[in-house]
Each structure stands twice: as structure tokens, then as C-alpha cells.
Amino acid sequence: MNSSFTKILRILLALGLLFFGLNKFIEFSFMTMPQLPENAADFMSSLQATGYVLPIVGALEIIIGLLLLFNKAVPFALLLLAPISVNILLFHVFLDLPGIGGALVIAIINVVLIYKHWKVYRPLFH
Amino acid sequence: MKIFHTILRIGLGLMLLIFGLNKFFWILPDFDFSGYPQAEYLFNSMRYSWSESINKGYLMGLVGITETVAGLLLILKKWVPFALLLLVPISVNIVLFHAFLNIPNIGPALLVAILNTYMIYKNWDSYRSIFT
After folding, report:
1. Could you read off the pLDDT of B20-41 as tens digits, one per residue?
2. Count of domains forming chain B
3. Which residues contact A67 (CB under 8 A, 6 or more apart)?
4. Is the pTM of this model over 0.95?
5. Is there a contact between A48 and A80 (Cβ–Cβ < 8 Å)?
6. Taking a C-beta distance cutoff of 8 angstroms, is the pair A69, A120 a contact?
7. Distance from CA of B52 to the nearest CA of A (A)
8. What InterPro entries does this protein's entry cite (chain A) (predicted)?
9. Which residues of B touch A67 (CB under 8 A)?
10. Interface test with A, best of B38, B41, B43, B45 (most A CBs within 10 A)
11. At A37, phi and psi to the nearest 5?
């Protein structure tokens, strides 16, 4: 694992996040949402009904994506991403297994990059 | 001052332990959501139901486990900065949930959020390395 490999991962993750984040605000015309199974649709529509959850997640994804893209405060950005990664993974595991691809990619890159920066997280476990 | 912080840490830990276990054993009385349909809708879809075919949300279980783990870590004074970090998404969301959907019950949420913030502030040295 060398630094250009991690650089590629970082930029890949950043682009993915920017795409998913912006998608929550401007509906990209080519991105057709596949039909979700009933429980997943129920869950998503209840999140939509709150009025605040999806915009906040979208904004966070965009901010984290930008931080990662410009290599600023990367360990912090990865930490901010962790709850989002965990939840998009669990959402698909419990409610929508077919769509799990994107979630897995994001979660795996998140874990790999955190592992790469593990030294700065160690004081949390003193 | 040290005693005060110990009390805060154990108090927060106990609160989390009780609210966390409550999501599995339902010992505390249920919240009253009458008049707040969106809050009730969200709350119910987040609960995992073993018996019904609907309401397969996983969130309540996840939050319950996280609260219980964080509460135990705080009480045992183990990995405290990490436990406080685990708590941040929960604190943020329980405040937002009540602020947007159910203002009357915002008291405990605010209390947890304030304690969480204060304790992170007291332990800030452990988080500094993340911002190098």
C-alpha cells in the first residue's frame, strides 16, 4: 500500500460522495432510482417526511467529499463519514440487499483509509 | 472538580445504559407522540419488529447497542474519548429529531447533548491529533 494507491482511493471516495450528495439536491436525469422493496420504501419515505434528514446527509456527503478531494483535514472527514457509512451499509443489509454495491464500496474505502491513518486515531483509545 | 467530572461521566453513562437497554427490554414508559404524526411515523419505522412483516427498520437496535456500549465504556472509564465520539451522531440526531418533529420532549435530548459536548471539551487533548 503506497501513497498513490491511497490517493486514488481518496479521490474515488470523494467523487462518489460528491455524486451521491449532490444527487439528494439536484435530481440527475440519468440517475433513475430502482424500485425499492416495500420496507425500504417505507423507511425512505419516513426519512423524507422528516424534512431534515436527507438534506443534512446530502450536505455532509458534499462537505466530506470536498475535504477529501482537496486533501484537507482527511482524518476528520473520514471520522465524519463513519456514521454515514455504517448506516448506508446497514440500510442495504436489512432493507434492500440488491442495492448494496455502492454502499459496500464507500464503506470499504472508508475503512481502508481510516486504517491507513490509524496513528492519529490512537489517542482516542488511551 | 475531579469529583464533579466523575459524577458527570458516570451520570451520562448510566443514562445511556438505561435508555440503551430500554430499546431492547422496554422498561421505561413509551413516549407520547400524539399530535406529531411525522415523529410517530419515523419512530415506528426505525424499530425492528420480530413479529410484524412491516417496520423492519434496524435503527432503534443500532442506537440501543451503541448507547449501551458507550454507557458501559463511560461507567468503566475505558476508552472515554472514543465512547464520547460514538455518542456524537446519536446526540446530534436526537436533538434534531426533537427540534424538528417533537419539541415537547426535547429536554432529555438537550441534556445528553450538552453533557456530551462538555465532556468532549474536557477531553479535547485526545482529539487534537485528528486535526494535525
Report:
1. 988 888 777 766 666 667 676 6
2. 1
3. A14, A73, A74, A76, A77
4. no
5. no
6. no
7. 11
8. DoxX
9. none
10. B45
11. -60, 160
